[in-house]
Amino acid sequence: MKRKLQLVVIGNGMAGMNAVEQLMKLTDSCDITVIGQEPHPNYNRIMLSYVLDGSKTMDDIVINPRAWYDEAGITLHTGTTATRVDTTRRVVVMDNGHEVGYDRVIIATGSTPFILPVPGADKQGVIGFRSIEDCDRMMEAAKLYKKAAVIGGGLLGLEAAKGLVQLGMDVTVVHLPDFLMERQLDEKAARMLQTELERQGLKFALGKQTQELIGGERVEGLRFSDGTELEAEFVVMAVGIRPNVELARASELAVNRGIVVDDYIRTSAPDVYAVGECTEHRGVCYGLVAPLFEQGAVLAKGLAGVETKPYEGSVCSTKLKVSGVDVFSTGLFLETPECVCVTFHDAWKGTYKKIVLKDNVIAGAVLFGNIDDASKLERLVKQGAEMTEELYNELTGAGGCCGTKANAAADFADDDIVCGCNGVTKKMIVDAITEQGLTTLDEVKACTGASRSCGGCKPLVEQLLQHVLGDGFEAGGSKQGICGCTTMSRDEIVAAIREKGLRSTKEIMNVLDWKQEEGCSKCRPALNYYLGMIWPQTYQDEKESRFVNERMNANIQKDGTYTVVPRMYGGMTTPAELKKIADVSLKYNVPLVKMTGGQRIDIVGVKKEDLPSVWEELDMPSGYAYAKSLRTVKTCVGATYCRFGTQDSMGMGALLERKFERIDYPAKVKFAVNGCPRNCAESCTKDIGIVGNDGGWEIYIGGNGGIKARLADLLCKVKTDEELIEITAAVLQHYRETANYLERTSDWVERIGLEHIHKTTVEDAEGRKQLVARMDEALSSRSEEPWQQVISDKGLRDKMFGKVVFQQ
Ligand SMILES: Cc1cc2nc3c(=O)[nH]c(=O)nc-3n(C[C@H](O)[C@H](O)[C@H](O)COP(=O)(O)OP(=O)(O)OC[C@H]3O[C@@H](n4cnc5c(N)ncnc54)[C@H](O)[C@@H]3O)c2cc1C
Ligand SMILES: NC(=O)c1ccc[n+]([C@@H]2O[C@H](COP(=O)([O-])OP(=O)(O)OC[C@H]3O[C@@H](n4cnc5c(N)ncnc54)[C@H](O)[C@@H]3O)[C@@H](O)[C@H]2O)c1
Ligand code: SF4
Ligand code: FES
């Protein structure tokens, strides 16, 4: 029998064991010994952040239990440190005095947290965050102490800080630069991140250099170089990492910052390899798993004698693992004179997208709030793709900055990476599902490696399972909820609100075990909507759960001013109203008055403090241009004036607008009413489009002229105005009751089907009556006109807009 190759792996961490697993897939010709300093079998270090925030247990994060080593015939020494590789005698020396001979050695000793060399850094209560033991220490500290400081506002520091907040501590993140995650984000994204994290309970001390840790034996606080101090009974240092190179130095290998390796992951000594965070390749030391696994793939092939391309370095992509915060960065992220940036910032939705182009090549990107395009951008950056008109439209159009896609993964190209950590493409997953009959996330994980590391790609893998298997796939325990705070779907939440009689967002979060006590910016507005829809008579709207524009009753603009759009029923106004708009615009120095596509007038550039006076002096109702409500009813001139018109479109438009305005819908709603099929007011692109025909009306639904254009579908034809109003009420109420929050009718119609809507609102007369009754109940409990509410409530006016000085 051929003698097996004696392979010794030093370091039982993520990079070393990944290389071993990749090797075992290629060959069984190695006899493997693993030496690990930690007392545990191989675990997923990345998941320590989830253990800390309480969403995973220690057991959940074990990658390979001891039984796996036994079954694979691997000799495992845990709690043992290798001290030297004797390249002359070809043995690895251990701290317990034992030696093991080798044919090949892999050094995978990882890194250690960098501890700031400041006085007091050795006090009790000061730790780094790297291991299971560190995690235990944090959980213990949270039971005994209240005030914590995390030094370093990078990925690790923020994940640690969030975990400590979840454990009930009062946490301040102390950061040297002026904005967070400056190694991955530009200032804009970093500020948005800070705002969201502050909302989740984190505090920040930015631009602060720690000079000393003060206290007795135990730390009591931090003193900064500007002389200020911060109280802290527990301190986590997360200011970066340093490769573990002592063993390599002792073994006389070439070492700079890390152990120097070439493009085939070889060190300076024959038959000695190094992989992972301990290495330095082409001058770069990596600190994320994807590059380490890429190195491992080249190494495994080299050891197995399989031809391999050289490792030429990696493009790094990162996602922060904090629930309720979607932030992604890949490649270049800063604006430099050589770069052109495509940026979109939607202050209302809280989303930001920046694509960095260098010589027209996509060289990097930053996403905040919506990271649907993360995988696509990661692939484009890796490929060095050129920006084209088509790509530009793809990246900035549907699902760009603002849209969230129902099944983003289904739209991926075959070679798009789904799991960045493990380099698994859509095709690899789809092939595995179809060829090997996989039906669960765990099976895909075991077969392809996707979702095995940070878990960030789980929703995408599930989407692919859903896409391939259709109804045959049921998301398991890891199914995606409406946001990171819950695993419950919209339908489950709505059912629970009804069944359990839940009456406030707080109560929902308590009873339904929200992961974050306060929820996040995704779930709070949604819950507020569902509660108002279910309990129209009694629910007290939670203004603070609404988006900023809805709280202010006006749309905030780029420069911090607001727009004011008064209601003009059916797109009609009078000379007297026009004069008032002109007078007010002049008096408040408004720079622009704009006609909108919905046939009304937009007063642009009003200062925040002037809003109440502008509303008061206009004395017109709010046009709800900021709300998820009925926005506009566009009308043509119709039978009253047009020689082709057979129906009174203006009259019907104004009537419908008055009837259905001022209640909440899942998303904004626009109507159009036309006097004849010439369709001058463009019913085909409206949520509800009405067209006069044959002395009656045609009702179209689900049109959209915006980011994802869609032609409306003909729902039915009716003879009378009464039927028109009744069916419109039923459709709107059905939409209110079954759509996901923020889902436009165009998506809703596609999701639940025109046929189903027809059955429910047209064919089923009894069901329609009930929908109309529930719509009437909602309409009868609508609140006061919002501008009037502010004008007439001095306290509210002062609270929202400061003290307004009235001129005599
Ligand atoms: C809390 C946390 C969250 C993270 N989240 C992410 C994330 O979301 N995404 C991401 O890509 N990366 C993340 N990382 C980084 C990622 O965990 C590391 O890149 C990865 O673990 C590095 O793998 P490694 O094998 O090189 O080092 P390690 O996993 O540190 O393994 C090295 C092992 O070698 C052992 N060792 C050291 N010296 C010796 C010796 N002389 N003899 C024997 N054994 C020795 C060590 O004890 C250790 O067990 C995170 C890290 C932390 C701490
Ligand atoms: N989600 C993820 O991908 C993830 C999560 C955790 C950790 N990690 C990895 O783990 C490693 C360690 O993470 P990290 O955040 O410690 O490293 P890091 O180097 O990414 O960030 C350290 C941060 O500390 C700041 N800092 C440096 N000196 C400071 C000082 N004196 N006072 C205050 N702030 C100071 C830096 O400006 C920097 O932003 C990194 O490689 C990281 O990529 C990744
Ligand atoms: S849609 Fe018909 S009725 Fe209305 S303006 Fe056009 S032509 Fe006239
Ligand atoms: S992206 Fe990290 S496990 Fe897939």
TrEMBL record:
Residues 557-619 form the Nitrite/Sulfite reductase ferredoxin-like domain. It comes from the Bacteria. Its cofactor is [2Fe-2S] cluster; [4Fe-4S] cluster; siroheme; FAD. Residues 627-764 form the Nitrite/sulphite reductase 4Fe-4S domain. The keyword Signal does not apply. Residues 317-384 form the NADH-rubredoxin oxidoreductase C-terminal domain. Residues 417-466, 482-531 form the BFD-like [2Fe-2S]-binding domain. The keyword Glycoprotein does not apply. Keywords: 2Fe-2S, 4Fe-4S, FAD, Flavoprotein, Heme, Iron, Iron-sulfur, Metal-binding, Nitrate assimilation, Oxidoreductase. Residues 6-279 form the FAD/NAD(P)-binding domain. Pathway: Nitrogen metabolism; nitrate reduction (assimilation). PANTHER family: NITRITE REDUCTASE (NADH) LARGE SUBUNIT. Belongs to the nitrite and sulfite reductase 4Fe-4S domain family. This is Nitrite reductase large subunit NirB. It comes from Paenibacillus profundus. The lineage of its organism: Bacteria, Bacillati, Bacillota, Bacilli, Bacillales.
